[in-house]
Here is the input.
Amino acid sequence: MNLPEPHTLSFSTLMSEIDKGIIKIPQFQRDFVWNKKKSCRLMDSIVKGYPIGTFIFWKTNERLRAIRNIGGIELPEASKGEFIQYVLDGQQRLTSLYATLKGLSIQRDDVQEDFSEMYIDLEVEENDDVVIFNIEDKDKSKIIKLKDLLFGSFQLLNDYPKEFHNKIDEYRKRIQSYNFSVILIKEASIDVATDIFTRINVGGKPLSVFEIMVAKTFDSEKNFDLAEKYQALIENISEIDYETIADATVLQTVSTLLTNECSKKQILNLKKQNFIDIWDEAEDAILSAVEYFRNFYRIPVSQLLPYNALVVPFAYFFYHHKDRPTGDKQRYLQDFFWRSSLSGRYSSSLESKLAQDIKRVDKILKDDLPRYDYAIDTSPEFIKNNGFGLNPVLCTTS
Here is the structure.
């Protein structure tokens, strides 16, 4: 990775690159939450020539899952092979700036906020608030919309009292000549970019592995969107009451199928193409595991599954063995299920234990009985505390 480079972008360049789809907001960024009051303060600082902080952009030709519609405007996709600059820091400021200067109306929940209703107060001195949004008691001839200030016709501007012409001209020039501070990160991997984002946002909620993998595996040409794929999977298994299978469990399953391991580091190192290529088979394997839990172990809902993580080794089994197990495979798999469930095995050090258990499943696939070096607990207290008491059928499966 090259060292981060400081840059400046003019107002026109910044707006143009957003319009062209060169500057985008990646999916792992949070929603736009600034209100007009906060946006007014930002624009007031720009009009007065104050610094508003530095934007951090990640320049790459990777295509991530990006938020395309800033304030409801359909932005184009950058040309194939063209570099995109993803916003790692400054999303709230950038969206606020764009919405204000484009005069956009932004829908949030049930509230629609019109960012075109931002005005320059031509009457006040510069040490007061120059940019305002509450104009209830204002003379319309002494205020001007920010959008009109920048893009209004000569006739519109000329209609204002002559005493304000110099101010109008001055404020327009200040915005148009404002240089925005940008740090550009180039030739960095998605892992580095998301790590930078997480470190910048130390006060906020850190990115989950799933959020990172959604960004990393997005492929518009292959129509692959992990967030949508996972949601479709959950909707599918929710019809049979297994909707509580976590996104982390799904990622662990995919990683295990590809590498026999499922640590966070291993998941983040998965190759995008390998992940996409195996997804359909991974999904089928998860569905087969769920059906087996329901039909053979008579576990009707996922909340009664002793551990969510049991999906991982069972999906691994059904990925390599498409048919329902019989004979020794069935007996050894049943033995594995109860040993894992009645030992509290997946209550700690999950990733390393899953890696060990995948080796045991490999033995079962070869009709070999695995060796176990941990004890089970069939005491009434353990069974009750681990949910088995909720479903007597679990204790009578033969």
Remarks:
- The chain is about 45% helix and 15% strand.
